[in-house]
Amino acid sequence: SSGINAEWPLRPGGGVDQRKIFMFAEKYLPLLGYKKRIHFMNAMIPGLTGDKMSSSEPDSKIDLIDPPSAVKKKINKAFCEPGNVTNNGLLSFSEYVIFPYLGEKEFEIKRKPEHGGDASYANFELLKEAYRTEAIYPLDLKNAVGGYINQLLAPIVKEFQSKELKKLSSQAYPVANTKGGKAAEPDRPVDISRVDIRVGKIIHIEPHPDADSLYVEKIDVGEAEPRTVISGLRNFVAQEKLDGALVAVVCNLKPANMRGIKSQGMLLCASDKDHTTVEVLTVAEGSKPGERITSDLFTQAPDTQLNPKKKIFEKVQSDLTTNDSLEVTYKGELLRTSAGPILAPSLVKAAIR
Question: What would the pLDDT profile of 20-34 be if each residue is shown by its tens digit?
């Protein structure tokens, strides 16, 4: 180690406005027995709300550990007046963060042909001029900036899932107590990271003794004992096709009694619109029972158990579908294991149930 002690504000807007506290530190830290530090000043960037970026206004800034859903919500609410290039936080973020991040790659805007088609910009001045002349519109800029921010943050968000870093964060930023003396739970966006979807292997399957449409399965989901799962697949999938299959199982639903037998999970399936064809999702060979199924962007730890009153799974389910390549997606992001994507056997543009 070089022994250098330096601080660089990583949050855009944490720059030259903090020079006074840095000068204070330079003067008084040595008096307290600490070494002087080097302070790097970065440019001031307008907040997303159009005013100064402030830690007291969550919607004015993007935090390093914001999940994709939070980023999207903040970007969608951002002040982004058509043609305004002088007080535009999204353009400033593009100049000072995204273009350096892209390096030699061009800034790309994806849009349908009827909305002008795709466009790309080799440098910030070209992007700025296109926005000034309204060759690109606020929604174009928001979609592109939001996508790049989530790319940039994805490895940081993923790394932050460790217990050590979460503990450190809770100690550094404790949740304020409510009047009743209990810690207030922070609002967490509803997205697929809340749902505990795991690879399961069906190790035993038989018809439900009291229901013609149900199977009773024993499924290995990487726990000490297999889970009992009831599924309504007898009218759609032959028993022998399910025996020994790798499947996708939702593991944090509240257990429910189904005709006298408690079900401890749910198999995910693809279904056509009229629910006449139902297919069990297939998991890539080489996936291990218990491995979590998620996307590259939605990586936060799942809830221990979903609260049925809040309808979290139902809200997530509305954004689950298959694409033209039969791959299962959530808001366009592929669901996968370390061995590959989750697929439907034949249904495209299908709902996931």
Answer: 777 888 888 888 888
